[in-house]
C-alpha cells in the first residue's frame, strides 16, 4: 500500500514531463497508454503472460511464446508493442506501477524477462495466484553496484518470484545476494532464439555487407572508415525506426561523395543500389541469412553495450563487432569466430577471408517450454 501510494505521488509529479514527451513520435503511443491507460485495457485472460521491455527482448521471447496456444504479452516501448502485436493481438503496454494492482489480469504463469523487475507487477501477479518466473535473469558487471545499493527493494521483489532461471553461475550468485531463491542456471535463452526468416532473398552477385543496428553517431564513423569497392553492396539498418530519416540522409551523402547509387528499402526499387537503407522492422534477419559479412553496431561507441550476435551466428555469417559490448558479454562467450575492431582495420577485415561464426552452446528451449507447461497445469488443478 505504501509503495503504491509512493508510485501515485511519483505519477503526479511526472505528469507534466509525460504530457510533454507524449507529443514526440517516439512516445506518443506508449506514454499515454502507460500513464493514462489511453487505448490500453487489460489483457484478455490467458494461461501464460509474458512481459518484456522493448523490441529486442520481445523478439527474444517470440520463439518461446509460439509454443503456447493461449498467452498474453505486455511491453514498455512502442517498438516492443509493435513487435508483440505481430504474433498476438492480446498485447498491451504495461501501465505505470500505481495502475498495475487493479489492471493486471490473472494468468496461471507470469514470465518476466531479464531486468523488468517492477514490484507491483510481481506482487500483483503473486496475489492473483500466478506462478511467477524471472527468465533469462542476469546482472551485468556495469549494473551490479547499482543493484546492491537498492538491495532492500529487490528483496521485496524476489519474495514474490517463485522461480529464477539465470543465464550463468555468476548471475546466480549475484541474484542470491539480492534475495532471490529457487534459482536454476539454464543459459541465455537468446542463444536458442533462432529467428525464422520471413522472406527468402537470393544472394547478390556483389559481396554483401550488412551494417546492422546502428545508433546515433555510428553510421558516420563506420561509413567514414570504409573505403567502398565496386564489387561490394552495403546495407545500413538503424536500430530504432525514429532514426530512419536521419540515417537515410547520412547514407545518401556517403553515396554521393563516393559516386555510389543509393536507395531506401521502402522505395521498392529492387535492391539494385550500392548503398541500401533498411528502413523497416522485421527484415534484418532475412539479410543476415544472405550476407557475406555483418558489421554489428551498438558496439563502436561507448554507452550502448552491444547487440545480440546469436542472430547473426545462427547463419554462420562472418561477424565484425566493436569493442564496447559489455551488455552482451554472456552472448559473445557463446559464439566463435567474431572479429573485434576499433574500425582502424575495418577495410583489411572486409577484404580478408573471414571465418564463419559458430554458436558453441545453446540454451535448451524445449526444457523451459516443458517446465512452463507443467506449471500451467499445476495451477489449473489448484
How would you portray this structure in words?
With 382 residues, the chain is of the alpha/beta class. The protein folds into two domains: 2-187 and 364-381, Rossmann fold (3-Layer(aba) Sandwich), CATH 3.40.50; 207-359, Glycogen Phosphorylase B (Rossmann fold, 3-Layer(aba) Sandwich), CATH 3.40.50. The chain contains 16 helices and 16 strands. It has helices at residues 2-21, 30-36, 55-65, 78-85, 100-103, 119-127, 141-149, 151-158, 169-177, 218-225, 244-257, 284-288, 310-313, 329-332, 346-350, 365-381, and strands spanning 48-51, 71-75, 91-93, 109-113, 131-137, 163-166, 183-185, 207-214, 232-238, 262-264, 275-277, 293-296, 319-321, 335-336, 339-340, 358-359. The strands form three sheets. A seven-stranded parallel β-sheet has the order 3-2-1-4-5-6-7, with helices on both faces. Helix 3 (55-65) links the parallel strand 1 and strand 2 (71-75). Helix 3 (55-65) runs parallel beside helix 4, helix 6 (119-127) runs parallel beside helix 8 (151-158) and helix 10 packs parallel to helix 11. The longest helix has 20 residues, at 2-21. It is globular. The two termini are 28 Å apart.
